[in-house]
Write a structure and sequence with these properties.
This protein has a single domain, classed as Rossmann fold (3-Layer(aba) Sandwich). It is about 50% helix and about 15% strand. The protein is globular. The chain has about 260 residues and is of the alpha/beta class. The protein starts with a strand and ends in a 5-residue tail after the last helix. It has a seven-stranded parallel beta sheet, with helices on both faces. The protein binds 1,4-dihydronicotinamide adenine dinucleotide (NAI).
Length: about 260
């Protein structure tokens, strides 16, 4: 049985992932703002550093994998927090855990991206580059140019940056070369508190109008199954992949982009 860190473990898909792993007998160290083992605010550098350290202590210095599910949807007025949690809240923790993941051998990481990276038109490339350069101020200024309409761009650029970071890490000597598999799960519309908040705060039409060829909404418990699979030995050959779990929305908009 393994030991796994799961961020965002108090709600939605992070919680479902943690529950699924525990059912299999694994040890899970959850990170979130409440109701988990490690209470931390991933929107600040100090919160992230404290979370990284406390997870390692509670895990007894061994990590077989990590699931980075903590995140926020794009809602007007919180672009900065979205960028901090969705991008820095993933990369700074994973970088802090990398030596421990490498020491475990054959470890696996699942980063939560989003299908918004392909569905949002004109994701600002300069904001993505600023995040990858770790320049939070520049990233915020770039999305700020969209004024009152900045929220979806802040969100999509944070998810595109974290996806690109994960793909770069996945193939590098420090990660792939150390036996760590890094992959991205890109959900579409999944019925979680985050989605409810989006719908309650002005995104109802956008959510309901999004084409989902297979129909309906994804269930957090099903996402937990995918996470468990991506951490299992069956995923030993999965490296740097972005898995869209979105009922066909990405395929609808990018049918021939292959
Ligand atoms: P959720 O809102 O149910 O769970 C997210 C968790 O992250 C919450 O428990 C929350 O407390 C935690 N979190 C937020 N800010 C934090 C902070 N500053 N410090 C520590 N923890 C913090 O959301 P859901 O839907 O389960 O989302 C999981 C991931 O999937 C997120 O990264 C989200 O962006 C992504 N996603 C969700 C989609 C959806 O339709 N629900 C679609 C595409 C991506």
């Amino acid at each position: 049985m393994g030991t796994y860190a799961v961020t965002g473990a108090a709600s939605g898909m992070g919680r479902a992932s943690a529950e699924r792993l525990r059912r299999d007998g694994h040890t899970v160290v959850g990170v979130d703002l409440r109701d988990v083992e490690v209470i931390a605010d991933l929107s600040t550098p100090t919160g992230r550093a404290a979370a990284a350290t406390e997870v390692l202590e509670r895990a007894g210095g061994r990590l077989d994998g990590a699931v980075c599910a903590a995140g926020l949807g794009g809602i007007p007025g919180r672009d900065q927090v979205v960028q901090q949690v969705n991008f820095f809240g993933v990369v700074e923790l994973l970088e802090a855990w990398r030596p421990t993941l490498a020491a475990a051998g054959n470890s696996k990481v699942v980063v939560f991206g989003s299908n918004s990276v392909t569905l949002t038109p004109m994701v600002p490339e300069r904001a993505v580059r600023a995040l990858l350069d770790r320049d939070a101020g520049r990233a915020l200024r770039v999305v700020g140019r969209f004024g009152k309409r900045s929220a979806p761009f802040a969100y999509a650029s944070s998810k595109l940056a974290v996806t690109r970071w994960a793909r770069r890490a996945a193939i590098s000597p420090e990660w792939a070369g150390a036996g760590i598999r890094v992959n991205v799960l890109a959900p579409g519309i999944i019925a979680t508190p985050l989605l409810e908040e989006q719908m309650a705060r002005g995104e109802k039409e956008a959510v309901e109008g999004l084409p989902v060829p297979i129909g309906g909404r994804g269930k957090p418990a099903d996402v937990g199954e995918w996470v468990a699979f991506m951490l299992s030995p069956a995923a030993d050959f999965l490296c740097g992949s972005v898995i869209f779990l979105d009922g066909g929305s990405d395929a609808y908009f990018r049918t021939d982009d292959w």
